[in-house]
Predict the structure of OsmC family protein.
Amino acid sequence: MSHTHRYRVDVVWTGNRGTGTDGYRNYSRNHVIRVPGKPELAGSSDPTFRGDATRHNPEDMLVAALSTCHMLSYLHMATVAGVVVVAYDDSAEGTMLAEGDGGRFTEVVLRPVVTIRADSDPAKALAAHEAAHHACFIANSVNFPVRCEPRIVVSSD
């Protein structure tokens, strides 16, 4: 059974320095991302593209979306498999190729370190990553590979 979900995001450019976009170097790439009922996110472009390094950029947010979607899917799949997760940390990395006036991501690699309770099955914990990958809404929506290189740690507590 299909269910349609909608997500509203408002983006407001705040980078007009008084002359608009009358020159490539004359405007800021700063903007505000607003989702109703949630804290605002300060956005910009990557510093390579004249952005503010202290603000979130679309590339960071894409990698973060893939990482968090996989984590949330994984936690569900682990629970279904009877695996008790006590910690989850990911160091995800995206690779983007700039070409002409545009570019594209060529891959994202997720590197989650998952700590499971001692009475959980490490094989099931590892297998839950594959199920999570197939369930992840964001990974299913991109046109580049999303690889997962998980490490399972059994808690000594």
Observations:
- The chain has two helices and nine strands.
